[in-house]
Structures are given as C-alpha cells and as structure tokens.
Amino acid sequence: MIVPKAQIKQLLDGIPKDMPVLIDEAYHHFVDSPDYESSMKYVLEGRPVIVCRTFSKIAALAAMRLGYGIAPAELIHRRSAPSRPAASPSR
C-alpha cells in the first residue's frame, strides 16, 4: 500500500511537532507513482521522523534481513541513551 505524500504531510502537520513518527520505506525503490514521495525531506528539516529502509528488496539480500533507519541526530541520541528501569514495588 502506498501512502500518498499529501496524507503523510497531513499526518505530520496534525500531530505534536515533538512526536516521533516511523515511516517504512522498504519498497521505495519500486514505487512508480506521482503520489509517492520519500519522507527523507522531513528528516532533513529536523522533524522527529525516522525513515526505515532495507537492503533486502533492492539488493536481493532477503535472507540477511539487513536494514537501516535515518533520523535527525538529536532523535537518535535521545532514543539510544540508556534509560533506567522503572522501580519495582517493594514487597
């Protein structure tokens, strides 16, 4: 299913500016539709958008399950920072 670029923009414009959004572009090399546009522009604008892609489809590496995500550096640092587990109630 292709989500048209206008709907992606509408979604991102309609949610809080600091809410992260993951957009799966696994098949972006195969899309041939004027309604499609990569969401990389939102990453470059600094919006909290994570674009996920894969080498599995385009490079015939399906068995390896090799992919990657692209996001603004600040979002990656925030997501990869270690967090402390929530305190368990004492007994």
Structure commentary:
With 91 residues, the protein is an alpha+beta fold. It has one domain: 3-Layer(aba) Sandwich (Aspartate Aminotransferase, domain 2), CATH 3.40.640. The protein contains three helices and three strands. It has helices at 5-13, 40-44, 73-80; strands at residues 21-24, 49-54, 67-70. Strands 1-2-3 form a three-stranded mixed beta sheet. Strand 1, helix 2 (40-44) and strand 2 form a beta-alpha-beta unit.
Give a brief rundown of this model.
With 91 residues, this protein is an alpha+beta fold. The protein is built from three helices and three strands; from the N terminus they run H-E-H-E-E-H.
Task: Tell me the layout of helices and strands.
Blueprint: H1 5-13, E1 21-24, H2 40-44, E2 49-54, E3 67-70, H3 73-80
Parallel strand pairs: 1-2
Antiparallel strand pairs: 2-3
